[in-house]
């Protein structure tokens, strides 16, 4: 089997409401659907989310690097030779989500070719994943209402609170209102998206002591190395690396330097192959991991579920799997369902994301992709 052709298809689907976080916001899912065609007729697919404020990638840059650099180098290669493909991709620096999408699509091909689900090929540990829902920058009482609705409607009992974009006092008040309103049985953790300094993060931890927070994710920029190390040493809860750890090498740097002591894994930027390296490194060093969200579509969410549910360590905690509910539509032919706080692993060979071609035709961009 050989790779015959690679398509990078830009498309746009609006969000029902803007999604805001300390490092930016999105109003439209201006993603790229990747399709890798083989000479046997099997097509591997993946969804690629551009995040210019995090990794420097735009929709236009993803399409360009795939069409001009990656596709010419990969056409003619055997898709089963994943590590040989990885070496080709690593010749080009950065472009994390473009590389991640290619790897996921190759796994999709391998699963289809062998008649196996990628979930089972990766390990097949659990048939579903527990869901964590992200709460954004709203008044504390509105956040509480949203969390209570997700609890009653979907059975969700784990929530990530986005912080770091407004005065610290408001973030602290939101933590207090959520804990008092949801009770002690609901898990809460914070994500500052590099929005604070290390000293500000220490102040927040001091003032939220006793609220039972599980994690603090990416509180400050990784370049604040001494501050991050001091924060990890003084914090009573794990400090999670996210934007600072897209590759296994980055994970090694942050863990060994003391910049974090827990890891958020995102398949959109790591694919499955690099995510396995990150997971093995993390579990070998005895640090907590959980599956994060790159503001993924349902297609991207399936990839997160497939990887997260395949491994014991990533199945222990809820994965961030609900952002697609904020989209006005999706390309997936068989929509995901959150039931009793969980999403099932899709059945069938490959990754399991079946595209509605009519929707793709409607949302795809015929002209030049957005810069």
Automatic annotation (TrEMBL):
The record's similarity note reads: Belongs to the mandelate racemase/muconate lactonizing enzyme family.
Cofactor(s) this protein requires? Mg(2+)
| Ranges of residues in domain Mandelate racemase/muconate lactonizing enzyme C-terminal | 140-238
Q: What is this protein called?
A: Enolase
What is the protein's species of origin?
Arthrobacter nitrophenolicus
Q: Which GO molecular-function terms appear in the entry?
A: magnesium ion binding; racemase and epimerase activity
State the Pfam families in the record.
Answer: MR_MLE_C, MR_MLE_N
Question: Which terms are listed as keywords in the entry?
Answer: Isomerase, Magnesium, Metal-binding
Matching entries from CDD domains are given as:
MLE_like
